[in-house]
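Form P-L/3: holo structure prediction, ligand flavin-adenine dinucleotide.
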Amino acid sequence: MIQINEKEKCCGCSACANVCPKRCITMVTDEEGFYYPSVDLSECINCMRCETVCPFLHDEKGKDVLVSYAAKSRNNEVRINSSSGGVFYHLAERFLSDGGIVIGVAMDDDCKSARHIIIRDVSELARIRGSKYIQTDPMTLYETISKTIKGGQKVLFSGTPCQVNALKRFVGKDDQNLFCVDVICHGVPSAKLWEKYLNYRQAKVGSVRKVSFRYKKDGWKDYGLLLENEDHQFFYSPKQTDSYFQLFLKNLSLRPSCYSCKAKTERYSDLTLGDFWGIERMVPDFNDGTGASLIVCRTELGMELVKTIRDSVELQEVDYSVAIEKNKTDFISVEKPKERDCFFKDLDNLSFTKLKKKYVRIDWLKEIKRRIKKKISSAKK
Ligand SMILES: Cc1cc2nc3c(=O)[nH]c(=O)nc-3n(C[C@H](O)[C@H](O)[C@H](O)COP(=O)(O)OP(=O)(O)OC[C@H]3O[C@@H](n4cnc5c(N)ncnc54)[C@H](O)[C@@H]3O)c2cc1C
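OUTPUT (holo model):
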């Protein structure tokens, strides 16, 4: 029976809860706001399926890199409304038009949490576009996905590397109807922190109805957070000065397992998508400031899938080892800051304003220089 003695060794994928035949495992949040399994021992029959499915309890080789591409949607609107170069949108569009279903992450209506949802029609795709920088609520779709692919329908699943690995262990790794896309992952921040931040912002801007974590008003590299309230007013906060982003980018708000991520080095995905940081050096033609993607193909299925979107996406093959020079989080976990545990101890005790004061340090001089530079360069255009 699954037992979490070290929090670093659970990614919260919820595969154990989904596989349990007695339904005696529930996912509960800890004081930091991250989900962990809790077993009702009086119901447990010791079938060990929870341990068998757990991606953390098994060492596997993972897939090697077959080929990598720099990529960029040919559609400006798609690039602007996606986090990177918009590749995911085109993969999803292709899947839907071929009769498959797509599963990706959407924000809930109150914008406090995010979860995996099923998309069956291209008109709903906008809901799962874009990165949501919070850990998703526990996935409940394992059984549905398994039944769908066994029934012969194709499924495109997109998530973090640990979520993909969990799903693959649940349904069987080589099912040809399941296509998995994972992301180059910095780590996932606590949804409890996000809710605290949102409440702090809502006290000033009113009820928030939409969130974009990668709004590209100042370009792809200088993205920021955009909130839309119920009166359709917009509030923009650049990542350089936004407290939630600063806590994320300084690695203070991440799940314990993200500091020693096992999934990054044992990926089972068909494709990995990320930002192509350093594109200006490697493929300058793709660098128009609206976004570029790195695609890493790990299976033949992944390579075939990329071929199907050639009409919609510009592609150039690149050397993986050079392409990830500025994006080592593809295979290396971020470092855990010394203040991290102290920060989470303060999460319940301090108001967001006090947390911000204690843990967020903004280099205003650097920020003012950045803004001046930006103004000068846009005046020149
Ligand atoms: C938490 C997180 C951290 C990331 N860190 C990095 C990084 O360090 N370096 C890097 O190059 N790229 C990182 N990425 C990936 C990058 O932000 C883009 O998601 C990726 O390049 C795909 O972009 P796109 O333009 O093709 O499509 P997009 O439309 O932007 O991608 C959307 C898909 O991403 C998945 N997704 C979004 N939010 C979540 C979530 N909370 N949990 C699981 N899956 C989610 C969805 O299923 C969604 O449908 C991260 C993404 C996430 C979600």
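COMMENT: The longest helix spans residues 364-380.
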